Amino acid sequence: MKFASYNIQFGVGLDGIFDPKRIIENIKDADVIALQEVTRNWASNGGVDLVEQITALLPDFHWVYGPACDVHRSYERIADRFVDRRAQFGNMILSRWPILANRMLLLPRARTYDKLNLQRAASEAVIAAPGGPIRIYSVHLDHVSPSERIAQIRYLKDRAFDFVAEGGALTGAAEFGLDEVPLPEDFVIMGDFNMVPDSPEYIEMVGLEDYFYGRPARHGQVVDALARAGRLTPASYSWIDHRNHAARKHLDYCFLSPGLAPKLVDALVDVDAVGSDHFPVHVDIDW
């Protein structure tokens, strides 16, 4: 199974050009795709509906979209009724196989007074993969405050590890004539975490490293696919400042549930992609 995660920055690349087609070119071979900064009626790209454009470019994929931030932008009266236009900013998950259930997990946030802070979320999907159902999360954490990121990570990990006990999006579905949704143990968490390796937030995610054993897969801690594949080095990066290309950071990750760690085949960051100020993360798992 091939996974890809990409913060697409409203569809605007390092060159300032809006071009969703080249974004899709870099990830179209994946089986499951997690996208962040997917917008509708957002000023940064002229107010286009990126959900519509992306799904048109990937017509053979199932998809869900979760607008973590949704605010009024404009309205007009058409045929004797009001039609609102909402400015939306959120995450998307696309899959070659049906998406059986979806939740939008709103992450903790606090008001800011001099920096942008908008509602962030993790989109959760249960996918009917050929090897059995699996959970996918498309995540975008706060970009300003390490403390807020730590709170968001704790909330996210609680949802991921307590998923079976909590029952996901729906249980007892037969009462409404629906199929019961499976509750898979294994999961993949992908996205833009706005944290650098070995930061306090990163350690909150994967745990402290032992001087001898490193970070073995264990319950309660997720596994960094890039690190396990030997692809996370001091020179690694997944983001470039479009104003200064010498400024680079590693901000994007794919984390695996402990049970998936032995099934990891490879992971890498495609630094040749130019469709965003971030780069897509690709992970292959023997599922």
Structure description:
The chain has 287 residues and is of the alpha+beta class. The protein is built from six helices and 14 strands. The protein has helices spanning 20-25, 50-57, 146-161, 163-166, 200-206, 225-228, and strands spanning 2-7, 32-40, 62-78, 81-95, 99-106, 121-127, 134-140, 187-192, 223-224, 239-241, 244-249, 252-256, 264-269, 281-285. Strands 3-4-2-1-14-13 form a six-stranded mixed beta sheet. Helix 3 (146-161) runs parallel beside helix 5. The chain starts with a strand and ends with a strand. 38% of the residues are buried.
Put the structure in a nutshell.
Helix content is 16%, strand content 36%. The protein has helices at 20-25, 50-57, 146-161, 163-166, 200-206, 225-228; strands spanning 2-7, 32-40, 62-78, 81-95, 99-106, 121-127, 134-140, 187-192, 223-224, 239-241, 244-249, 252-256, 264-269, 281-285. The strands form 3 sheets. A 6-stranded mixed sheet has the order 3-4-2-1-14-13. Strands 5-6-7-8-12-9 form a 6-stranded mixed sheet. A two-stranded antiparallel ribbon has the order 10-11.
Give the helix tally. 6
Give the helix proportion (percent range): 10-25%
Q: How many strands?
A: 14
Termini distance? Answer: 6 Å
Strand order across the biggest sheet? 3-4-2-1-14-13
Low-confidence stretches: none
Along the chain, the helix and strand elements come as: EHEHEEEEEHHEHEHEEEEE
Broad structural category: alpha+beta
Which sheet architecture does the biggest sheet show?
A: 6 strands, mixed
What's the Cα radius of gyration?
Answer: 19 Å
Q: What general outline do the C-alpha atoms trace?
A: globular
Mean pLDDT: 96
- The percentage of residues in β strands lies in 35-45%
